[in-house]
Amino acid sequence: xxxxxxxxxxxxxxxxxxxxxxxxxxxxxxxxxxxxxxxxxxxxxxxxxxxxxxxxxxxxxxxxxxxxxxxxxxxxxxxxxxxxxxxxxxxxxxxxxxxxxxxxxxxxxxxxxxxxxxxxxxxxxxxxxxxxxxxxxxxxxxxxxxxxxxxxxxxxxxxxxxxxxxxxxxxxxxxxxxxxxxxxxxxxxxxxxxxxxxxxxxxxxxxxxxxxxxxxxxxxxxxxxxxxxxxxxxxxxxxxxxxxxxxxxxxxxxxxxxxxxxxxxxx
Length: 267
Known about the structure:
Elements: H1 2-10, H2 30-39, E1 41-46, E2 49-61, E3 72-74, H3 75-87, E4 93-103, H4 105-116, E5 122-130, H5 134-139, E6 143-146, E7 151-154, H6 167-186, H7 192-199, E8 211-214, H8 215-220, E9 226-227, H9 230-251, H10 257-266
Helix pairs in contact: 1-3, 3-4
């Protein structure tokens, strides 16, 4: 059932029969092109290290549809994929590639919470930028990487549209900021005090408050685990998959001959 659910969500047209094995599509094939075009994802690796690569690019689209000229990642597409990846036994790990300017706060946090709650090995790699709500998305993985040339912007939460100038609005902003701060600091090595300090920095951005962290700065601050490249992220994920497999073998109960014999007698 897990295999069938995964194929239905990933690309229903690619599954011709129920007995078809889940395997990565050949590079450049029509099936692989469909996966990338429709879902911004691809399946790669060998049978012992099957990796699902998910990209979060442009702007995270939430409850409102963004203009057609915007590059977006739709959270209603990402959430079912994450559920399917967690349930599919043939998928061993998840690699998340991030190059995002941010977007809808609640949609981004929803995706981040799902990633953080996955049992399977997860690794994130920030390329270009992982700004705003991209920060929780990057730290949600079990191990996070950032390219040396990439950057991350830490700033307070914002709201578009009608805003009432009343105390309740300010309190709502503060609560939402606390949610983001709590998630980021629980999933990284940065303290809440330092995250708040970087968010409220008024000395760096000309038209805004906040802080821009380059690759090495993000690691030094404890926001990201390591500076690395694509090969580093894949090697780390493969290692985590091997470790996870060893743990599963140790925790798996061993059936003795007596229990097997007793089971046969009961039958």
